[in-house]
Design brief:
alpha/beta; TIM Barrel
Length: about 400
Amino acid sequence: MPSNKDRAIIRQLAAETAEIAALPIQEEKRRLWRQLNGLKPERPMVTIDQVCWNEMNVNDELTLICDDPECRMYEDWLRRQLYQWRHFPVDMVVEPFVRVSKAVSTTGFGIGVKEHIAVSDPTSSVVGHAFENQFVTDADLDRIQMPVVTHNPAETERRLEVAHELFDGTLDIFEQGYDPYVSVWDPISTWMSVEDALYAIIDRPEYMLELGRRMVNGYLSMLDQLEEQGLLCHSQSLIHCTGAYTDELPAPGFDPARPRTKDIWMFGLAQMLSTVSPAMFEEFEIDLCMPIFERFGLVYYGCCDPLDKKMAQVRKIPNVRKISMSPWVNEELGASEIKGDYVYSRKPNPALLAWPVFDEKAAREHIVDTVDICARYGCPLELIFKDISTVAYEPQRLWRWAEIAMEVAQG
């Protein structure tokens, strides 16, 4: 069990978190997210995620002092959340509970990643990857294995016992099930490299479709196992860095002991297919993955992949509710395609924080342009500032961006 020292540190941070979580603004933010996700927004919503935390530490606010690795994990989460609340809260919600993950594991598809890594900043988690192609022959397809899901109840109980020891009296404990990640092409890009995979789609389309079909079947089997064993997550606070609060989930008949895929959000993407034609995108992503999409209650679709010219295909996804508009889209075209039918999930360009000098005027204009375009076309709008790999070691740039974004969003 945790030492007295570690327990005292965690309980102090948890008490600060609980005090913030009890503020009325938290429920107001949940309400605003529900309005947006119901396509009846009161204003644009703003989130910040995937931050370069290695550049953020000011006055030791993020310095870890616990000794036990498990305590340090909780300490890191608490310190980052408190730091964000102090410096760039935007529309984040601080929950009055801590999520404790069940000890769920999956064997995956049986393929490891072979790669060479290039590091430019040793303190950063952002590195370069050069992947080796492991799918060349027909026989290589047989390496794909069906995932097997297992649960270790004893380990889950141990985790819960530790969490209660640390948090009872401050934050509630929420037993967190498995939140499935079901991308087909992101894993393939790491098994083959993006270049080799794209060439194979051109030269050997049936081979790549068969590879994709085997993965889809594997994911469907994994989801079946998670449902059958009652191991899926539920009551998501976030889906892909944005508020997941909605009045439409869970579905009728929901049992918290046995959540179903139709009770939760799914996050789909095919970043590797950014440069392929809409027709190829439809064949290799939409049609291929439809058995996965149609299982879920709501779908957030896209990430860095530009979707402004592929909206006809994205519209075929059942229950799609939010659609990513990355820094590489034509915003006018994207808004004209989305209109009021979905949430326009805009990803402002994080490069604006990486230049030698932070240009506040350019950052404001970048946001205002999006807000104005979405207003013209009646698009429900969220601004998701993410993939922030550097702020030139000046965290105040991010703090100021947050202030600017909220000034614009609140009118």
